[in-house]
## 1
Amino acid sequence: MAISFFKQKDDESVTESRSMIDLRNVDKYYKTAVGDYRALTDVDLQINAGEFVSIIGKSGSGKTTLLNMITGIDRPSNGEVWVNGTGVHTLNENRMARWRGKNLGVVFQFFQLLPMISVIENIMLPMDFCRMYTPIERRRRGMELLELVELGDHAHKLPTALSGGQQQRVAIARALANDPPVVIADEPTGNLDSKTAESVFALFNNLVEKGKTIIIVTHDSAMAKRTHRTALIADGEIVNEYVAKAMPTLNHAQLLQATRSAKKMNYEAGTMILHEGTNANAFYIVSKGTVEVILPRPNQSDVVAVQLGPGKVFGEMEFFHEKRYRASIRASESGPVEVLTISYDELSKLVEQSEATRESLHQMADKHEGENLSWRGVSS
């Protein structure tokens, strides 16, 4: 029996969702003696099938609570959580356990292997619990998964006979037992040396290439940068990833401030966003689609000077130079565009708090000013 890394949606699916994971306006608060404690506030997070996403944040920022929402270990106080087309927030406890066993593989920081049974028996447990495969198929699949993580020779050993890195590999194999579409790992390399951590990360990359959706929580920012996307959580709120990409020198609190102040605006393909010569009052970050910087040419059609994709910005040149737009901007004909706007008043507050951000944006503005003049054939 060859291992399959692709599966159909469970028959408990109640609706279709464009994303493999879709958190919509999720709040989570706990009642305490001194009032409600908010662990998550208005979280929106979408992760597509086959993505490798890292979640980073300081201790107490809400990372574990966020994972608990996705896995159904805890329920949102408000909002919706959809995973693989199923409304996790709608499931009762009995359905939740069966659904989780088939749809999610969870890798814990401290392995959580049962010490008194063999490695292969640990891997077979989830199959037995969810009544997946026949007894013969379970053992065969367990061996194939151990071969996948390069531990086939250790199948009949107890977990305590293995190194920490080997136990983590067994934990990953166990998470794959029922061929779930999503694997979630909480600090999977936190207790491993750098060489072993690298091999575990390589295994995750291999799984993504085979179609799995992987989410890891990590404190290792260098490792997080190697995933497809990074979701930064601060004080229970998700920092917009495009804000973070546009202004990476802001600290977590400042990024959260910028995210809160950013306004979403949507434009149909080919729509003009800004007109040259009009008053400038906002800084723009492209979050979806592509925009075109266009320059007029006398008695000729306009020329597209440059295209800007997600994470790119415009409006910073005007912030530092005269507050009047130096070019026209339109949504590309290829599709609709979403941009985030931060007013110049809010941008001023941010750069006052971060000299590194001011310097970075100013250098960008000067560079683009020179390019603008060059496009027009004007010497600076």
## 2
Amino acid sequence: MTQIGFVGLGKMGGNMVRRIRRDSEHEVVAFDFDRAAVQRAVKSDAKGARSLKELVKGLRPPRMVWVMVPAGDPTQQTVDALAKLLDRGDVIIDGGNSRWTDDKRRAKALRPAGIDYVDVGVSGGVWGLEVGYCMMVGGPAKAVRRLAPILDVLAPPTNEQSRAAIGPRGWLHFGGPGAGHYVKMVHNGIEYGLMQAYAEGFDVFDKCEYELDKAKIAHLWGQGSVVRSWLCELAALAFEANGNGLESIEGYTADSGEGRWTIADATAHDVPTPVITASLYERMRSRGSGEFADRVLAALRNEFGGHAVKRAGRAYGKTSRGSS
């Protein structure tokens, strides 16, 4: 039986604690600044803690603490606080979406204190509670071996084709500090491109002459099509829940940084990534970032070609002198 502390009990962290307690005998000590989140973890048979100090005291040495908070300052502050409470031989695991360079820096900073640092890139979202989480791991091999029983519970079983390559469970150790989050970063960059391709395809359906049921199309494509995927299954669910035109959803798409980091590192290695780059730019456009550029384009077309422009809901313009 393994014992682990969990810091951060949001949609991902809370479900991970629940899966560990539901599917194994491993012990979890859980902390979050949101007391309601801690109480939910306690209802899942975890032991609640009222502070990081209490969480550390509730763990038997050598300890392992999994941090599942937003990347950037929240993660750094949590790691810094834990470093003052933990002892030589303990392990800190970052399961958020940290940049791999931050992992390398943190691992180096913790090394003199004898605290190991493991980075785990986690994919699976809110569905991971039921189907499991795909996990990409970096860090010292000894620390990863200690963490393996927890990873085994969180990961889904592999299919027959994958079992020979990666083992019976859906996680893999890729190398030293940062390796796990590096693989997850590129994973998310690819995800950007896949999502954009689906979005554009369904946009064509939305504008075409036929009255097409997009949910049924997405379900059909899941039946042996070369474009079948979990994302396609999720598209079907989204159309069913929100209607064929997704009228209740605002077309605003945020990004958590991995696409940008993928593009930056690809550029540093002279690797062209036009699809991932274009998909990131489309996300930026969805936030209104391209609205002024669109107005400039419309104004220029009106000036050189007399093409109509729209203003306040009506079209006006000079007689067309050409096209472009």
## 3
Amino acid sequence: MQSKNKRAIVTGGTRGIGKAIVKELASKSCCGVLFSDVAFIYNSCDECAAEIEKEIGSLDTKIIGFKADATSLEDAQETVNAAIEKLGGVDILINNAGITRDNLLLRMSEKEWDDVINVNLKSVFNYTKAVIKHMVSQRYGRIVNIASVVGLIGNAGQANYAASKAGIIGFTKSVAREVASRNITVNCVAPGFIETDMTRNLNDKQRELLLQNIPMKRMGNPEDIARVVGFLCSPDADYITGQVIAVDGGMTM
């Protein structure tokens, strides 16, 4: 499998970390092959999807967007089937879809809890379940789930988000044990505070408080996460599975 062009699916692929991962996987130096074809999943922004297809796609690389509800197992299976048909298979799955609905637990609504759990955690179940039979059949697969350092250390006002990301970590380790003998690795990347749309809304005081907890005294970039994801999908990481790699400037050391 290492000599063939890879076929990847990335959920939440139109912005921030997801977009950077799509670019990384489509780059000519990624994954130990000349290039990867990528299907990315998005929920709302048709214009963003069209821009990514135009910006990243080339004569050598297929970049295809699929609009779907990541919280629906039926949508996930239909999307994966369509991606397999368009790309000729799937070798890599990146579960990146995620949202925040921050609130103190005393004020958190049931909907705020359910929305975050469904998008962040259930989507990982949905897409992993949808691809796993194909990967087991071909006896090859690379799955990388995007968690968060919040899933490791918690954060006030983010009980729903932290629970979803901690759930992803437990899910990752369990599935890694189930499929390791089929040459399928399942790993987790836990970003710290990254310069994305989510963090750009922070005011100066909030940003200063965050930086006090980061030994490197700066936020990361989406590309910092994407490069680690690319490594975990490459032949260099063939003997790594069930692991959580924190990319956080030293926050959780």
## 4
Amino acid sequence: MDEPAEIGRRVQRMRSELGLTQKKLAEPSYTPAYISTLESGKVRPSEAALRFLAGRLGTSYEELSTGRPARLATELRLALTDAQQILASGAADEAAAHYRRLLAEAESLGLADERVGALLGLGDCALETGELPDAIKYFEHAERLLADEPLPRRARPIRGRAVAHLLAGELRYACYLLESTIDELGASGLADPEALVLLYAAVIGPYIDMGAHARAAHAAELALTLAPRVADPALVAGMHRQVARTFLTEGRVADADASLAKAQAIYGQLQLRTDLAHCHWMRGYVQAQDGDLASAERELRTARDMLSAGRAALYTAQVEVELADVLRRLGRYEEAAGLLSALLALGDSHGAVHAGGAHRLLGLMAEERGAYESAEEHYVQAMALLERSGATGDLADLCRLLGDLLRRAGRTEAALDAYRTGLGHRSAPGTTTLGPAPAAPAFPPHPASR
């Protein structure tokens, strides 16, 4: 809000342009004396007073209190939804260019919410393109701007920062960020369903990579249970954007803002759909462990379809490695190998953990075909990748596979070396890498379940 003297001059100018007396402007809620004092800059008007006067003067509260036409902020919000749509289509570099321009505009106009929106968008773009230090920088900046906001408002930048650390191979720190935020939400009484779905879904990946499978399954079930409490009208996002444009051309700024708020919420859900896909992936993983391969294949294909629809290429690898394992166990070797070869052709851009998982599966299939030299090559490549990422649970299992292969080939000393390496990485899931699991939030029954 501007200084009282500046606001007073603005009120006097607008009143004079409309030909209103101080008495006419004041009626029926205030006195002419109050208007006179306000216009002279001797009193700082309350928000309620400014909103009343804005209505009488035919302007917006924002323009009256700051001098910025409301249309500027609305047009900036519209441009942010355009950038969100571009990112959702998979054009991360193009979206980043839009977000950088919008961040500069928001900073020049002093629009805090729009600055946060642009920073979060830049963070998502950097995640998509693998520029992880930049992603962390953008999400941390957004967190600082939201420092005085309730914790649910900060869930998205915290989640983004955790995902960046996860992709950088810092699994324990990613878990710490997500688990501590989940616990804080529960303890504060601010257990917002959307924030919790984002956080629970994001923690599944590091849990799996660290061998905490039971904890990952529990997080997935909690996220899927909360999902019905989160609206997902994604099919009408584009319509809301176009409606907002129409309202703007007609000068209906408030109506345009309302449509943009709906569009922004929807584009936020595109990321939520990515996280829910991870929950379906986890459910498929659990079913595969139980031997229900047909159900596992259905869940994993559902997850992959959701990720593909959102152009979430960076995360699709998680599902495809697991799906390939299910196909291998179903005897569909050619289909499994096709998935894995396509994944490895993309290089390390999709994460060392998942590339390591792909090599492990190709090694298993080669060993089952009797191609032992090829199997050993794949196991060794997988070990190098997993050692980089810190995925100790997978690494211990891989050392066992390699040791068994070498022992059957009569290479006893090499087998013992592989077993010793594996023992150095072996731990019970969650006991040495994680603290206590976050407490589950308490919610009243959802109306849809009654």
